[in-house]
Amino acid sequence: MPQPSPIRVAFLLFPNVTQLDLTGPAQMLAGLGDATIDLVAGSRAPVATDAGFALLPTASFAEAAMPDILCIPGGMGITDAIEDGETMAWVARAANHATWITSVCTGSLLLGAAGLLRGYRATCHWAQHHHLAAFGAIPVHARVVFDRDRVTGGGVTAGIDFGLALVAAIRGEAHARLLQLRLEYDPAPPFDSGSPERAGSEAVARFRAMAARAAPDRDARLRAAAVRAMSEGGRA
């Protein structure tokens, strides 16, 4: 059996990232075989996640090798990341090199802000899905969306499905099935409330109220980012 070709994967790491958006797909993509996983941030200082612990970058923006797969996770810190010029400049450089330009959860909004989703089908966390169209994307409600070299995953846990689907696209279904077995990825959640349709209107309203308290200016900032992005050119 021939050895798989080496692949370099880069995850953007920013303060208040949702760690499962990153660690879930990172575990899957590590199963590509001969894969190097980089966590890239502005510096090598530990980066706080939304789970109360920090992740350690493996490279700074200045040090990072250009990736074959670029992945942008999401989280409450995504708006600050979008507004950070150094972060967006690195994403643009990495995207120019990458074979696959990808995201999980609200990471797709950063891709949109970088002009990388204009005219592409894409998904996002359900609570922020309505922002996609403003960035020129074609919104799709799905766990994982492939459109040419763009791959986007829905909210948080969808990143695991995204990672497995991307492994299948690169290494083949047989390889991905073996990886799924190795990781015993056989989900059977104890509750059926993982989508707004099944969770019910009361739970959805409670979640939206909590999110609004946590980030009362997020929608306005994302709308402003969309206006800026649409006034500039994006990569085809």
Keywords:
9 helices, 11 strands, globular, 236 residues, single chain, 7-stranded mixed sheet, two-stranded antiparallel ribbon, alpha/beta
What does this structure look like?
By secondary structure, the protein is an alpha/beta fold. It has 9 helices and 11 strands. It has helices at 19-29, 78-82, 85-97, 107-113, 158-171, 173-182, 196-199, 201-214, 218-230; strands at 7-12, 35-41, 47-48, 54-55, 59-60, 69-72, 100-104, 121-122, 138-139, 144-147, 150-153. Strands 5-2-1-6-7-11-10 form a 7-stranded mixed sheet, with helices on both faces. A two-stranded antiparallel sheet has the order 3-4. α1 packs parallel to α5 (158-171) and α5 crosses α6. The radius of gyration is 17 Å and the shape is globular. The chain starts with 6 loop residues before the first strand and ends in a 6-residue tail after the last helix.
Proportion of residues in extended strands: 15-25%
Structural class: alpha/beta
Helical residue percent?
Answer: 25-40%
Query: What are the low-pLDDT stretches, counting only 5+ consecutive residues below 50?
Result: none
- Basic shape: globular
Beginning-to-end CA distance, first to last residue: 36 Å
Q: What is the N-to-C order of secondary-structure elements (H for helix, E for strand)?
A: EHEEEEEHHEHEEEEHHHHH
* Mean of residue pLDDT values: 96
**Number of DSSP strands?**
11
**Separate helix tally:** 9
Q: If you compute it from the alpha carbons, what radius of gyration comes out, rounded to the nearest whole angstrom?
A: 17 Å
Strand order within the widest beta sheet: 5-2-1-6-7-11-10
**Major β-sheet annotation:** 7 strands, mixed
